[in-house]
Sequence to fold (272 residues):
Amino acid sequence: MLLWAACSANLARLFEVLQTFTTPGVHPALLCAALLLGACWASEGSAAPSATAETAKASGSVLLVEVSGMTCVGCASKVRSALESVPGVASALVSTHKGVACVKTEASVSSSAMGEALLAAGYALVRLDSTERCPEDIKVAFADPWDHRGQGLDVVTISRGEEVELDQHIVADKYTVIDFGAPWCSPCHDAAETLQEYLTSHPDVAIRAVSLDGQDPETSYNQPVVGQHLAYVKGVPWFLVHAPGGKLIYKGMDVKRVLSVIERHRKRGGQP
Fold:
């Protein structure tokens, strides 16, 4: 009863968020539990996950944040964006594999603000601790979209930013999807996952990936391959689809259109 009384003052916030926020793939029970824990931490100082959890003082503080709910490679980009949206946060590195983020601050940071930002993105703050520096194993924030994907499938990374002649990589007897993406690009990871699933039942499709190597847009868009092939493109992901024989049948940013164009072309027996 005492715990309930201590938390009850914050429960209104819980219901407000649940009524206005939905995230595909995130069970409401996770959101509820995370907000309830946050309410209890705010009401019971001794129950907080860390003595440093409420505020990180001064510029240059470093925090190690344990985050639950990161079940996909693309989650790192979403968690990073959520944390960097919090006032006082200068930057964040995220390891999906470790389930942690390393946050550098430039001013005082509220743990409740970080918890709410993560929750709004579909994740939960589990623990928050001060540290002297970011651990070495989470200094690489993002993996390439096709890293650890495509095993056993016709998937080849043909460039990591260097110039490449695309015509040399078109597979003559298959639909060839040239997939331009970047490590920090969450939609690129989602598209790679969609294409991977499609390839498992469609062996007549090949992926040739071009990764704009870099941990941020500025670095990626300065890669030589961008000037070669993406000078007039709005961004990534960007797809070029070639039918068997090499004819270009689609270019654009929509992975669903990639699949529908291939399906339509296949049903027409290869006719335009």
